[in-house]
Design a protein that fits this description.
Elements (H helix, E strand, L loop, with lengths): L5 H10 L4 E2 L1 H8 L4 H13 L3 E5 L2 E4 L6 H8 L3 E3 L1 H7 L10 E5 L4 E5 L2 E7 L8 E4 L2 E4 L1 H13 L17 H10 L3 H9 L4
Parallel strand pairs: 5-7
Antiparallel strand pairs: 1-3, 2-3, 4-5, 6-7, 8-9
Helix pairs in contact: 5-6, 6-8
Length: 197
């Protein structure tokens, strides 16, 4: 069987503008089905720093033009950027945090890869909305990022002190509309206490 060179594969990833690789995608690209062969090729690509392993079965193409927000979306699906990262992105929080924060319907977890921590907080699937695609990644609308944060604060998973937030970019009507869709009494109570409704 003809061997596949790492140089050819690297070129192929580049031509197809691939950012991420899975074993299944690699198998379809090289038309091979043997799992052992696929994993051996992945190991070789990792050894030559053509791929960086992110977590099980998920690899980053080393020279891909990719943002940390895109990596966060890719690591755990479904997820979108929210909480501190989105609030900082919109200028609501004045400083960026070390972790890239997202919400997901999956269990809460932290993943450390490529010298960065990716933090995922669990929200119920009924509240998994209010996000958009921006620069190739899914990110909460400013209003939903605030509400995601306050929802977790109402569950004692975040600090409810929001005095330093700059809410000038928030659309008040959209915020009220979004808040009305989240049927969670502790959140509604917190919103009233903070005079946000």
């Amino acid at each position: 069987m003809e061997s596949i060179s790492t140089v050819d594969l690297s070129r192929k990833f580049s031509q197809l503008r691939l950012k991420f690789i899975t074993p299944q995608l690699l198998a379809s690209l090289i038309n091979r089905g043997n799992k052992h062969t696929i994993y051996k090729i992945l190991e070789r690509l990792e050894k030559y720093k053509i791929l960086t392993r992110l977590n099980k079965g998920k690899y980053l193409v080393a020279d891909a033009d990719v943002t940390e927000f895109e990596i966060a979306n890719y690591l755990i699906k479904p997820s979108y950027i929210s909480l501190e990262s989105a609030l900082a992105h919109y200028g609501i929080l004045s400083q960026f945090t070390y972790s890239i924060t997202s919400v997901s319907t999956q269990k809460a977890r932290k993943i450390s890869v490529i010298n960065r921590e990716f933090e995922y907080s669990k929200i119920t699937s009924a509240f998994f909305w209010g996000y958009k695609t921006q620069n190739g990644s899914l990110i909460a609308d400013p209003e939903k990022a605030c509400l995601d944060y306050l929802y977790l604060a109402a569950k004692s998973l975040r600090n409810p002190e929001i005095n330093e937030w700059d809410l000038t970019s928030i659309n008040k009507n959209r915020f009220k509309d979004y808040a009305g869709k989240i049927k969670f009494a502790p959140l509604q109570k917190l919103l009233k206490t903070k005079k946000l409704l």
